[in-house]
Amino acid sequence: GEVTLELTQLQRKQEQVMKVFLLLLSVAALSCGQRTSPPAGQRCSGRNFNGRRCCTPENPCEFGEGDCDGPLDGGSNDGHRGCEGNLVCGSNNCKKFGLYFHEKDDCCDDPSALPERIQPVLIPGALLEPPAGQRCRGRNYDGRRCCTPEQPCGEGEGDCDGAGDGGVNDGDRGCRGSLVCGSNNCKKFGFYYHEKDDCCEKPTGGSVSQGSNIQGSDWGPWSKWSDCSNVGIKTRTQKCNVKECTLNNGRVGSVNTQERYCFRKK
Q: If you count Cβ atoms within 10 Å of the first and of the last residue's Cβ in the chain, which end, N or C, has fewer?
């Protein structure tokens, strides 16, 4: 009786506090000129909505749209051709256009907003060249996502596609055993890596992160990669074994699609 009533009143108070907090957060975001959801009609709203590399040379983006694949991403990229006119592809700059973007999304921006190139700092003990026999050495050598669930990497190898990249990703399945996929952490293993490369490493605190595996029991196996297209993209899909499956970013669907860069044989 009385205990149940007190618990109900406490729950109501907690709900009211949460509603006020969310309202204040929305007001603060709007007062700073930042949106919490994509505007109507926006074609490319970042990896949380449209995946990575929504802006392409074939379908370039307008000011404040992303994700584009610019030169600051290293490796094989579109340069600034994924942006309309004289706009340029920034680096991790989408948050200033809207809170709904992922922190690693790159948006089309004014040329004056491009950051100055900062000289990297040498980390003591970091190798200047990849060791002989290392299979995955980052996007400067082997492209992005060299570490996959089918061919996982050892400690200090990359690039892996972890949960820190947002959107559809491999979680920690691109790393062997109990290793986890870090975020922009490869430079500590070797100076030859790009600053955006993610490497497999031992988990902090000695425990493997849970919930980063996007492929739950309801997802079927991945299909084989398609042939490389004329625009240098290959795709693969996995189908949901039930009516709907949930991805790591909260979205639901019946088909999960991944895209990767590739080179056509001449």
A: C
Q: CA-to-CA distance for 167 and 74, rounded, in angstroms?
A: 20
Burial class (CB in 10 A: 0-12, 13-18, 19+), 16: exposed
- For the ranges 31-35, 60-64, 176-180, 221-225, the lowest mean pLDDT is seen at 31-35
Q: Please give the Cα distance from 227 to 225 (Å, whole number).
A: 7
Q: Which range among 13-27, 80-94, 207-221, 239-253 shows the weakest confidence by mean pLDDT?
A: 207-221
Q: What is the pTM of this model?
A: 0.54
How far apart CA 40 and CA 128 sit, in angstroms, is 48
Q: What is the pLDDT of residues 157-198, one digit of tens each?
A: 999 998 887 777 888 999 999 999 999 999 888 888 998 999
Q: How far apart are CA 264 and CA 232, in angstroms?
A: 7
Strands annotated E in 58-151: 88-89, 108-109
Task: Pick the closest to residue 27 from 15, 38, 19, 39 (CA basis).
Answer: 19
Q: Which of 240, 237, 241, 239 is CA-nearest to residue 257?
A: 237
Coil, helix or strand at residue 14 = helix
Contact yes or no for 184/195 (Cβ under 8 A): yes
Q: Pairing relation of β-strands 233-239 and 245-246? A: unpaired
Residue 55 DSSP one-character state? -
Residue 102 has pLDDT above 50, yes or no: yes
Residues paired with 257 in a beta bridge: 237
pLDDT surpassing 60 at residue 239: yes
Element (H, E) at 136: none
* Residue the block writes with tokens 């970013």: 249
